[in-house]
Design goal:
homodimer; 322 residues; TIM Barrel; 6-stranded parallel β-sheet
Chain lengths: 322, 322
């Protein structure tokens, strides 16, 4: 059985997008439900999702484990897995880890770009690694079954998390910095350590993570995929597109600024390019998975490897962590 | 005019304690109103204080600036200044800095023992210094008039805060580590930098910060005071007793554990001594200021210096930061 999984999207959710994901043949999507929301605000987001599930029950349902990916495949639907891009919903309370899991959370980043109570983000000057509270949170996430996601974390914090966690962790959406040296991309050393520990990297299609950004070519992306497979092993990579379809620019501003600063922070953007960047034309939305399939074939991957990268590797990861 | 000020107490507040502070001749006390409380919980604490102010209006009132210390002296009362031992009440929102100030907050620690969103606490393994959000918060605290208190912070974070802050900062309750090498006590380098920037150190009478703990002698404490005055200048030191009168041991447990860990953390205590330690017999409560007065005289301080250490230095600091 082959699966197609996009392990990170943060779209402005509406039926149209569920239809696109369906057309793309995605059996599972890990969706970002919160950035800086606290526990109560997270609950509101889950209510909004309940409405989506009710109104689009022919296309989507809430996934809880790898079995729901199998179910989605059988029923020709997309299983939606909840994740957080910051640890804000657990606030300063270890007991909320279990609570957010009860409400569907399967992935949680220990940090967004800044320092959190758990670890250091990749936009801080110094990285002190996983904190006292962070160690406790990782233990608890392991216990209840939430995957540690270090996509936006700094290097030492990520290495700490890999070491402390008893289960494999994930970087759901980032690329190797050997290909494009963005702050959010990851070093070879880190990626090797990640794969040796059974962890997964979701390759990102977000222009700020791509060589030549919006003008990145499919060939260049697939070449990078091949080199990353050499580095990490072909079974430890998947896709985490970071698609932000139909989001207004006010959302990326909020993602970067939250409520922590009175002056504007541009994150990966800049004063002249503050908004969401344009996607490369071969990956406008998840239907670009077809182009990835051709591109990966052309670069020399065999069918099994391609099916691994485009979904089966994530499926096996979901199986390992459950 | 001479003032007596204790710049840190966290007692189990009731009339008896306000009477003791009155008997001790204290014109001002900086009280800890919260540790790990969020904004809403802080508001509840201020309501409890409103009740104290109403029921004990013959003894105490809420202080907002140095003028209230003058007023307290004139009216034979004690001005109460609000402070936080953690930054929890501002949550992740820069706009709450002004809000907590509007509700009386005059001192805020950037961290308790652990990493916070603003800086690193003294019980973390690594200290990454003041964070991105921390820089913004310091700017905002400077603007609205909240003093940065680094009593429970790690060294680099404290040096960062001194450098970033445009107003002098305080370490309201700690001692020099040259005298007693506790995790919470401070290095000579830090204390020199603090005083050179116009900052204040409040000497602590909490047994875990004292040489020989509960058995610390008045002579030893006053000798330490003399050496600290040599190091920092006699005008940059005061008292921040850290008195925790009538608090049940459950409170110290909560102070240390908050809600961040499921296993017990003993902080400055230990498994065999988990509770509040016994005060030395020459400083059972704030009436011990009398003993400090004699002790400081005996060690060779003149009257002006003694009045400085026991209150006037803090009074002048309050004047400088307003």
């Amino acid at each position: 059985m082959n699966y197609r999984i996009d392990n990170l999207q943060y779209c402005n959710w509406e039926r149209e997008i569920f239809e696109i994901n369906h057309e793309a043949g995605l059996n599972a999507v890990h969706v970002t439900v919160v950035y800086h929301e606290d526990f109560d605000e997270f609950l509101k987001r889950t209510s909004e999702w309940n409405k989506h599930f009710e109104e689009n029950s022919d296309l989507i349902f809430l996934g809880k484990s790898y079995k729901d990916i199998e179910k989605a495949k059988l029923e020709n639907k997309t299983a939606i897995f909840f994740g957080f891009q910051n640890c804000s919903p657990i606030e300063d309370d270890i007991n909320l880890v279990e609570k957010v899991h009860e409400h569907g959370c399967l992935f949680m980043q220990l940090t967004y770009n800044n320092q959190s109570l758990l670890a250091t983000g990749c936009y801080e000057k110094n990285d002190s690694g996983v904190t006292n509270f962070g160690r406790e949170a990782i233990k608890e996430m392991n216990r209840v079954g939430i995957v540690i996601d270090m996509s936006h974390s700094a290097e030492k914090s990520t290495l700490d998390a890999i070491e402390i966690s008893e289960k494999p962790i994930a970087i759901t959406h980032a690329n190797p910095s050997f290909w494009y040296n963005a702050k959010r991309n990851k070093s070879n050393e880190l990626l090797k350590t990640l794969s040796e520990s059974g962890g997964m990297l979701g390759l990102s299609l977000y222009p700020h993570h791509l060589r030549n950004n919006t003008n990145c070519t499919l060939e260049s992306f697939c070449e990078m995929t091949a080199k990353t497979a050499e580095l990490m092993g072909v079974k430890n990579i998947g896709i985490g597109s970071d698609l932000c379809l139909n989001q207004p620019d006010s959302v990326v501003e909020w993602m970067r600024n939250g409520t922590w600063t009175k002056i504007k922070n541009y994150g990966e953007g800049s004063k002249v390019k503050p908004g969401f960047p344009k996607q490369p034309d071969w990956f406008i939305d998840s239907r670009g998975f077809k182009n990835l399939e051709s591109g990966l074939k052309k670069i020399g991957f065999n069918e099994e490897e391609i099916n691994g990268i485009l979904g089966n590797n994530w499926f096996n990861f979901y199986k390992r962590i459950n």
